[in-house]
Amino acid sequence: MNEDVLLALADPVRREILDLLAHSDAATATALAAALPVTRQAVTKHLAVLERAGLVHSHRAGREVHYTADPAPVHRATRWLDGLAARWDSRLAAIKALAEGEQQP
């Protein structure tokens, strides 16, 4: 799992940008900035972070750059987090069993 994905998703503005892109075919930085409480320049910087993490892809159409969301890195991160949660659940169950004096199966 790419740690850049988790770092990119850690920022609430980037999550909001991804949410906006997930509900549209494509959008420009200008269109995204109009829907957010940040400047177009800030949106462009956030998009660069998202693109480095593979969460968005850009393509030029004339003078405009259009961005689209790619859900694959989020799905990989989700699978990794689910596996991590399962391992923690197993460890916690073992600790509980030891604390209650039970034997592990």
From TrEMBL:
InterPro entries: ArsR-like_HTH, HTH_ArsR_DNA-bd_dom, WH-like_DNA-bd_sf, WH_DNA-bd_sf
SMART domains recorded: HTH_ARSR
Domain HTH arsR-type: 1-91
Recorded superkingdom: Bacteria
Gene3D superfamilies: Winged helix-like DNA-binding domain superfamily/Winged helix DNA-binding domain
CDD domains xrefs: HTH_ARSR
GO MF assignments: DNA-binding transcription factor activity
Chain segments annotated as transmembrane: none
Stated name of the protein: ArsR family transcriptional regulator
Organism encoding this protein: Kitasatospora viridis
